[in-house]
């Protein structure tokens, strides 16, 4: 077994992690905040920076047909790769760690191994996935689904808010959408996938633990809801004769909240709403809103969906408006792999940390990768459990712990091989 020689050397690895993450955070579509949506110029720049960092560890770097940046370091005897990584896209006005930590921590870990002259028997691949947030397009997990071969070709026709399809965005990004199948990988290529991610919740902080082991990832579904009423003059149409699409949408949103409150273990969020024609003196005629529904139990999520669609139908009838609901994305909950999680759990313990297992309410690239290979996830404590918010942060000590656990995992694997 290879010992962790660099433990206790004043967080050198953690400092590097924070430095590289800060460099990535400078790449934004907006001057005063971090917004980096998938398949944009800024995403290309983030891929380029991650690629340069990967190359410095000795990796060969390429971009695949869906826009994932992939580094590969050959092993001394086994062609199969341990896959590490997370996403490089962000939400709007994002924190710096959601996604990038899972790309940067493995890079710094390989830098350490290289500096110490340690060659692994198996290959390592690090992937910066192209889209996990699903902010630009209605679908999500584009990069990881393409890798797993579960991305239906028709998804490429989905459009962003400006009417640009994923296929068009890919062309502008320099990729050929007709080649999308080439992003698909074989299960036999991999030993497994390990994703490092901030917890995005308060459990680890509450228990004063730097890292945790993820047991399962909640399933999720996304919908676009369009409410069509009748636009009209704000001064002349009596209240009782209106078909106000925004008031109908508001009633739907309250119903969604009530239903999700009434069921155990389900969360529903309306995060986007657009009212047209959008003038102060016009009754709204068309409203579109998003719905994000999640639960650790798929049956509970399905039950919530049924109740919500029923309530929306009743509201449409009562208010004499038309409401169309379209499901744009659905992913079942997944369990992390027992064997790979045991390996990661033992790396946590051998690194001197208490093993704390916990589920993930957030979605992750690992959910899609579960269709390709065994998955495991390492959660890292984040301040206040805050995420999807510029206040997201982790400490240099926890960044150090993350790299050391990864190093322990890789060297344990190497010792077993
Ligand atoms: C991604 O962060 C998601 O869970 O939606
Ligand atoms: Mn994420
Ligand atoms: Mn996120």
Provide structural commentary.
The chain is an alpha+beta fold. About 35% of the residues lie in helices and about 25% in strands. The chain folds into two domains: about 5-220 and about 335-410, Aminopeptidase; about 220-330, Alpha-Beta Plaits (2-Layer Sandwich). The chain is built from eleven helices and 16 strands. Strands 1, 2, 3, 4, 5, 6, 14, 15 and 16 form a nine-stranded mixed β-sheet that branches. Strands 7, 9, 10, 12 and 13 form a five-stranded antiparallel β-sheet that branches. α3 (about 100-115) links the parallel β3 and β4. α1 (about 10-25) packs across α3, α3 (about 100-115) packs across α11 (about 395-415) and α7 (about 245-260) packs antiparallel against α8. It is elongated and about 80 Å long. It binds glyoxylic acid (GLV) and manganese (II) ion (2 copies). One manganese (II) ion (MN) binds next to loops.
Topology at a glance:
Layout: H1 12-25, H2 41-55, E1 60-63, E2 69-73, E3 78-87, H3 100-115, E4 122-129, H4 142-148, H5 166-173, E5 190-198, H6 203-206, E6 211-217, E7 219-228, E8 232-233, H7 245-262, E9 266-269, E10 273-276, E11 282-283, E12 286-295, H8 298-319, E13 322-331, E14 334-335, H9 338-350, E15 357-360, H10 365-369, E16 375-380, H11 396-416
Parallel strand pairs: 3-4, 3-5, 5-16, 6-15
Antiparallel strand pairs: 1-2, 2-4, 6-14, 6-16, 7-12, 7-13, 8-11, 9-12, 10-12
Helix pairs in contact: 1-3, 1-11, 3-11, 7-8, 9-11
The chain binds glyoxylic acid and manganese (II) ion (2 copies).
């Amino acid at each position: 077994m290879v010992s962790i020689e660099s433990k206790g050397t004043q967080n050198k690895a953690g400092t590097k992690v924070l430095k590289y993450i800060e460099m990535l955070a400078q790449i934004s579509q907006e001057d005063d905040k971090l917004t980096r949506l998938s398949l944009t110029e800024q995403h290309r720049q983030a891929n380029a920076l991650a690629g340069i960092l990967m190359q410095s560890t000795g990796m060969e770097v390429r971009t695949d047909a869906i826009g994932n940046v992939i580094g590969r370091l050959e092993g001394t005897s086994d062609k199969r790769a341990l896959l590490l990584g997370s996403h490089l896209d962000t939400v709007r006005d994002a924190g710096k760690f959601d996604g990038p930590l899972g790309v940067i921590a493995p890079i710094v870990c390989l830098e350490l191994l290289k500096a110490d002259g340690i060659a692994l028997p198996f290959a390592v691949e690090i992937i910066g996935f192209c889209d996990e947030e699903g902010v630009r397009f209605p679908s999500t997990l584009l990069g990881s689904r393409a890798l797993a071969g579960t991305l239906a070709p028709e998804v490429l026709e989905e459009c962003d808010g400006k009417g640009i399809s994923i296929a068009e965005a890919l062309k502008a990004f320099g990729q050929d959408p007709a080649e999308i199948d080439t992003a698909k990988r074989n299960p036999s290529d991999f030993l497994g996938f390990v994703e490092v991610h901030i917890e995005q919740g308060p459990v680890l902080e509450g228990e004063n633990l730097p890292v945790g082991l993820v047991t399962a990832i909640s399933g999720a579904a996304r919908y676009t809801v369009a409410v069509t009423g009748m636009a009209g003059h704000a001064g002349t149409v009596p209240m009782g004769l209106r078909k106000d699409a925004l008031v109908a949408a508001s009633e739907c949103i309250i119903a969604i909240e009530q239903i999700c409150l009434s069921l155990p273990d389900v969360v529903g969020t309306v995060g986007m709403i657009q009212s047209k024609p959008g003038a102060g003196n016009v009754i709204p005629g068309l409203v579109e809103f998003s719905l994000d529904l999640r639960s650790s139990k798929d049956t509970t999520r399905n039950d919530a969906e049924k109740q919500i669609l029923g309530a929306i139908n009743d509201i449409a009838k009562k208010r004499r408006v038309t409401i169309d609901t379209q499901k744009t994305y659905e992913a079942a909950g997944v369990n992390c792999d027992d064997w790979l999680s045991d390996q990661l759990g033992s790396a946590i313990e051998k690194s001197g940390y208490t093993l704390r297992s916990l589920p993930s309410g957030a979605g992750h690239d690992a959910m899609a990768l579960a269709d390709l290979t065994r998955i495991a996830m390492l959660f890292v404590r984040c301040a206040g459990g805050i995420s999807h918010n510029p206040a997201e942060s982790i400490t240099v000590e926890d960044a150090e712990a993350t790299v050391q656990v990864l190093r322990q995992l890789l060297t344990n694997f190497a010792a077993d091989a």
